[in-house]
Design goal:
The complex is a heterodimer of chains A (229) and B (243).
Chain A (H helix, E strand, L loop, with lengths): L8 E3 L6 E3 L16 E6 L5 H9 L4 E2 L10 E7 L2 E7 L13 E5 L3 H10 L4 E7 L2 E6 L1 H4 L2 E5 L7 E3 L3 E8 L2 H12 L3 E2 L2 E4 L2 E7 L7 E7 L6 E3 L1
Parallel strand pairs in A: 1-6, 5-11, 7-10, 12-15
Antiparallel strand pairs in A: 2-17, 3-7, 4-5, 5-6, 8-9, 9-10, 12-16, 13-14, 14-15, 16-17
Chain B lengths: L1 H6 L3 E8 L3 H12 L18 E8 L2 E8 L5 H8 L5 E8 L3 H10 L4 E7 L2 E6 L1 H4 L2 E6 L21 E10 L3 H12 L2 E3 L2 E3 L5 E5 L8 E9 L8 E4 L2 E5 L1
The chains are: A alpha+beta (229), B alpha/beta (243).
Chain lengths: 229, 243
C-alpha cells in the first residue's frame, strides 16, 4: 500500500493554545507498515481556529461537514505535506465533546479495525456509513481521545509551510492506552508511544481533574516545537 | 363512535432498544441524531419496579426508548442471551384505539397476547416475539394523542438530522406471510412483504440471514438534508438509515 502524506488531514478545534518546548520528532517519516495512518486530529472548541491558524501562519477556510455530526462546523487549511482541518463543534449537540478531541486515521479496512477493537474489549462508539464510506469511532474512555477510522480522505491544499510530526494524547492510563492502540492498529509500541505508520501518538498521564484527549501537536517547523492545544 | 374506533388502523408510536449500557447507547443516539440529551427525571424511573431503567428521546412524533435491565434474572437478559449476548432492537410499540377489537382480530388469526394487562392507566397488550419476529406491543392510550413517554409535552429536543421515523425492518421467517397476518391484525395495508400503517409508516418484514438476526434490525429516518439519504449509523445492532 502506498501512503500519500499529501492526503493527510488534521482536524483541530482547539480550546486554548500555547507554544511549549520542542519535542518534535523532525521530518515526517514515511509510513512503514500497511496499518492505518494518522490523518486528522481534532479538539472541539470554537475559539481555536483563529488561534491555531495564527500560530501556524495559515488562514482556515470552511469545509464540507457531511461527515460530521449535526451542529458541527469545520474549517481547514493545509500544511506542507499535511492537510489540516480545524473542527469546531457545538458541545451541546455532541455527547462526547468533553472527551477532548479526535485522532483520525485512514485504513484500508475500517471493519478490521472495528473487529480488533471489539476483540480488545473496546467498544465502537460510531459505526456509520456516510456518503458510502465507513466511519468507525472507538470508545474514547480508555484512549483519552476519540480515534476515528475512515477508508478515504480528500486532500486539502497546502497553505502554510509546517509539518505535523506527532500528537500527544492525555488519558488516565497511558501504558494501557498505548497497548490498546498498538493492538487495535497493529502498531509498534514503546514507552507509551504508539507508532502509527511512522506517526507517533504519545499517550501521557492526565490528572483526574485535567482535560483528557489531544493536548499537543509536534511540529517540524524551524523551531521544532510542541504546540499545546 | 365505538364502531369507528374498532376499525381505526393501528399506529406506530415508538421503538425500543435493549442494551446492558443505556448511557452509552443514548450517547450514540444523541451523537448521530444531533439531539440534546433528554434530562433525567428526578426520582426513580417508572419502570424500576419492573426491573429495568428507561430513557426516551423523540424524532418528529415518534419516540425511541432505550431500556437496560437492573437485576437478574430479567426478561431483557433472556433477550441478550438469545442474541449471543448482543444488545438490539427489542420492540415496536403501537397504538390501538379499541383493545377488544384488536384482541378479537388477534384471536381470529390464531394469536394470543403474551401480556394483556393494565399498565399505569393504559391497556397494554403485547405479542410474543415468536409471532412477528420482534415484540409488537399495543396500548390503548387515554388520551389518545399523548402516550407513553409524553411526546407532546416531554423535555425532548428536535433532531436537526431527521424529521421523523418513517419505518422499520423486522427479520422473521416467512416474511410475506407475517406481513399478511400483521396487516390483518393491525389494520394496515400490505405491500409485498411490508405493511403500511397510518401516516405511511412502514414495517418491512424480511428473512433473517447469518448476519441479520431475527428481530427489529433497522429504523428508517426521513433526512432533513436530502444529500444525507443513504447514510446510516449502526447503534445497538440496529441500523438507523436515512431515507
Amino acid at each position: 500500500m502506498t501512503h500519500d502524506h499529501s492526503r493527510r488531514t488534521l482536524i483541530l478545534g482547539v480550546g486554548a493554545l500555547a507554544v511549549a518546548t520542542s519535542t518534535g520528532s523532525g521530518a515526517l517519516a514515511k509510513p512503514s507498515a500497511a496499518g492505518p495512518w494518522v490523518a486528522r486530529i481534532g479538539v472541539a472548541s470554537p475559539e481555536a481556529v483563529a488561534q491555531v491558524g495564527a500560530q501556524l501562519g495559515a488562514r482556515p477556510r470552511p469545509v464540507p461537514t457531511r461527515h460530521l455530526s449535526p451542529g458541527h462546523r469545520a474549517a481547514s487549511f493545509g500544511l506542507a505535506g499535511v492537510d489540516v482541518e480545524f473542527e469546531d463543534s457545538d458541545p451541546a449537540s455532541h455527547a462526547l465533546a468533553g472527551q477532548g478531541g479526535r485522532v483520525g486515521l485512514v485504513a484500508q479496512d475500517p471493519d478490521r479495525i472495528a473487529a480488533r477493537a471489539r476483540q480488545a474489549g473496546l467498544r465502537v462508539f460510531r459505526d456509520w456509513m456516510v456518503a458510502g464510506q465507513r466511519v468507525i469511532e472507538l470508545d474514547p474512555g480508555p484512549l483519552g481521545a476519540r480515534f476515528e477510522i475512515v477508508g478515504i480522505l480528500a486532500p486539502e491544499a497546502v497553505c502554510a509551510p509546517t509539518r505535523v510530526t506527532g500528537v500527544v494524547v492525555a488519558c488516565a492510563d497511558p501504558q494501557r492506552a498505548a497497548a490498546l492502540a498498538g493492538a487495535i492498529f497493529e502498531a509498534p509500541v514503546q514507552d507509551a508511544v504508539a507508532n502509527l505508520a511512522g506517526f507517533p501518538v504519545r499517550f501521557v498521564q492526565s490528572a483526574p481533574a485535567d482535560r483528557k484527549g489531544v493536548v499537543a501537536l509536534n511540529l517540524a517547523d524551524a523551531r521544532r516545537r510542541e504546540v499545546r492545544v | 363512535m365505538q364502531e369507528d374506533q374498532a376499525t381505526r388502523p393501528c399506529r406506530v408510536r415508538h421503538y425500543v432498544l435493549a442494551t446492558p449500557d443505556q448511557d452509552f447507547v443514548c450517547q450514540q443516539l444523541y451523537d448521530f441524531l444531533g439531539l440534546k440529551p433528554t434530562p433525567k427525571r428526578d426520582g426513580p424511573s417508572p419502570t424500576e419496579a419492573f426491573g429495568f431503567s428507561t430513557a426516551m428521546m423523540r424524532v418528529g412524533t415518534t419516540l425511541i426508548e432505550v431500556v437496560q435491565p437492573l437485576r437478574k434474572p430479567h426478561l431483557l437478559h433472556n433477550f441478550f442471551d438469545s442474541r449471543g449476548g448482543q444488545d438490539g432492537g427489542f420492540m415496536v410499540v403501537m397504538q390501538t384505539y379499541d383493545a377488544d377489537a384488536l384482541r378479537a382480530r388477534a384471536g381470529a388469526a390464531g394469536l394470543k397476547f403474551a401480556m394483556d394487562m393494565d399498565f399505569r392507566g393504559q391497556r397494554l397488550m403485547q405479542f410474543d416475539h415468536k409471532d412477528f419476529g420482534t415484540r409488537f406491543e399495543f396500548y390503548k392510550y387515554t388520551p389518545e394523542e399523548n402516550w407513553w413517554g409524553d411526546p407532546l409535552n416531554g423535555p425532548y429536543s428536535d433532531s436537526p438530522l431527521a424529521e421523523e421515523i418513517v419505518g422499520a425492518e423486522v427479520a422473521v421467517e416467512r416474511p410475506a406471510e407475517m406481513a399478511a397476518t400483521a396487516a390483518a391484525v393491525f389494520i394496515a395495508r400490505q405491500e409485498g412483504q411490508a405493511i403500511i400503517c397510518v401516516d405511511d409508516r412502514r414495517i418491512d418484514f424480511v428473512a433473517p440471514t447469518e448476519t441479520r438476526l431475527r428481530g427489529l434490525n433497522a429504523i428508517y429516518l426521513k433526512a432533513r438534508d436530502r444529500s444525507r439519504v443513504g447514510d446510516m449509523a449502526r447503534i445497538a445492532n440496529v441500523d438507523f438509515k436515512l431515507v
